Amino acid sequence: MYSSYTIMFLLFICTWGAKADDPLGQFCNENSKISSGGKLSANIDKLLAELALKTPSTGFVATTYGKDQDKVYALAQCRGDVSTQDCNNCIQDATKQIRQRCPNQADARIWYDYCFLRYSDKSFFGEVDTSFGIFYFNVENVTDPEAFNKELGALMDHIRAQAVVPREKGLGKGKSVLSPFVTLYALVQCTRDLSDISCSQCLAVAVSNFPKFCSNRKGCRVLYSSCYVRYELYPFFFPLDSNNSGPSNTAKVMVYT
Ligand SMILES: *[C@@H]1O[C@H](CO)[C@@H](O)[C@H](O)[C@H]1NC(C)=O
Ligand SMILES: *[C@@H]1O[C@H](CO)[C@@H](O)[C@H](O)[C@H]1NC(C)=O
């Protein structure tokens, strides 16, 4: 899958202590440098204000601002299972943080668990983008990989099919009881600008990279610009199951292809 152009960084092992408004990651495209005082930059600010205002009520906004070479395209989306309040908090953080982290780029993206936001001076609506990915995986391994991978595969197939049913708006989630004490939880979310086929395609790429970064891991997250895929052995999606044992040690890998 990955060519010699792949650049990979193993960034850190984290437990907890990250601030609430810290994103899971961001991508500032260094080939899209802009001057901070320019028209394009002003248009980005206008667009971000609009996204901050409009996204929480619907969970999704894809819109443009400006004309000709100063036109900006932007998309903001919350995960389909999060509340309006959580969506609002996430989007407010995202609109602030993305400009601090990518102050001089026309193409910028920021990932959180509850939301995703990106903008660019080039149109990207409806296009599958898996060129840049962030992977988080649990550093612990499952004890019975064969049985686990079979259950994981079945659950992923199920929720991937769910995500492309139009009324689900790109969201699929479910759980699988592995034993009286162990339950597997999984969620997939495509950006809502994608067609069913494009959504399927993004999820297929994400799942096909499980063996590369998440083989036999107790948990894994794949963050792309077009879809989000996650599984854990603890509840993480809403409505939240009781007995939230919470995350353990997680490592992060960023991949450019
Ligand atoms: C999990 O498996 C990987 C790959 O086989 C190994 O490198 C790693 O050390 C294992 N993790 C633990 C916590 O045993
Ligand atoms: C949650 O944990 C309690 C005690 O640890 C247990 O009695 C209960 O069955 C658990 N519930 C679920 C849904 O696993």
Describe the structure.
Residues 21-124, 130-236 form the Gnk2-homologous domain. It holds the Pfam family Stress-antifung. This is Gnk2-homologous domain-containing protein. It is found in: Secreted. The chain has 2 domains: 18-120, Killer Toxin P4, Chain A; 132-256, 2-Layer Sandwich (Killer Toxin P4, Chain A). With 257 residues, the chain is of the alpha+beta class. The radius of gyration is 18 Å and the shape is elongated. Helices cover 29% and strands 30% of the residues. Strands 1-12-7-10-11-9-8 form a 7-stranded antiparallel β-sheet, with helices on one face. Strands 2-5-6-4-3 form a 5-stranded antiparallel β-sheet, with helices on one face. The chain contains 5 helices and 12 strands. The protein binds 2-acetamido-2-deoxy-beta-D-glucopyranose (2 copies). One 2-acetamido-2-deoxy-beta-D-glucopyranose binds next to loops.
Q: How much is the radius of gyration in Å?
A: 18 Å
Q: Let me know the CATH homologous superfamily of the largest domain.
A: Gnk2 domain, C-X8-C-X2-C motif
Classified by CATH, the class of the largest domain is Alpha Beta
Give me the side-by-side strand order of the main sheet. 1-12-7-10-11-9-8
Task: Give the CATH architecture of the largest domain.
Answer: 2-Layer Sandwich
Helix and strand pattern? EEHEEHEEEHEEHHEEE
What is the straight-line distance between the termini? 9 Å
- What's the overall geometry? elongated
Question: Roughly how much helix do the residues carry, as a percent range?
Answer: 25-40%
CATH topology (fold) name of the largest domain: Killer Toxin P4, Chain A
Secondary structure: number of strands:
12
- Given as residue ranges, the uncertain stretches (5+ residues, pLDDT < 50) are 1-5
Count of the domains: 2
Number of helices: 5
Question: What ligands can be seen in this structure?
Answer: 2-acetamido-2-deoxy-beta-D-glucopyranose
Q: What share of the residues does DSSP label as strand, in percent?
A: 25-35%
Q: Whole-number average pLDDT? A: 92
| Secondary structural class | alpha+beta
Characterize the main sheet: 7 strands, antiparallel
